[in-house]
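User: Sequence in, structure out. Go.
Assistant: Echoing your sequence, followed by the structure tokens.
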Amino acid sequence: MEIMVFFSLLLLACSVSTNPIDADIENHDQQISNQQPSLQDIHAVLRELTASVAEQKVEIGNLKQEKQATQVAFSASLMNGAYGDTGPFNTLFTLIFKRVVTNVGNAYNQHTGIFTAPVRGVYHFDWKVYGYGNIAAGALLYRNGEKIFFAYEYPTSGYVSASNAASLLLQPGDQVSVRLYPNSRIHDSENHHTTFSGHLLFTM
């Protein structure tokens, strides 16, 4: 009887005790399970990465646009492979310099003769007019509706030229043009004597 009670107690003890090896395996599996990210966590990380890449693409695009906007230079002559006179007129006349040799940034419009500032900054312009005969050759630089500088010469005989230059602080959208002085006449030919040029010095 005592032997049977002993074996019964031994079996009961074995049934309620935990095998140390099994416990270690179970704890290890639990740790691995806790360390593995869930599917939701992976999706959240992917969303963050996608958003970050999209923001970087936008920033790179903006930087490219800013770089292009700060690359501004043009140079043009009055006649496009021909020769002839312009003027005289009894009022100011906006000159259209048709032969464009440089127009980086496309800020100069060869159809209107007007330069439009793409960014705020200081720009430098120069213009030259060529004339002959017993009539003045003159042209003025205008910023929007404001007269800036004048290039003027009156020939007594033969041909004459007049030139001037200016550095202007412009806001985006400001327009710069060269206008023929009233009762003036200018000449141009395949040698391109009468010209208008400008470029951005620096942004502000």
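User: And one key feature?
Assistant: The chain is about 30% helix and 40% strand.
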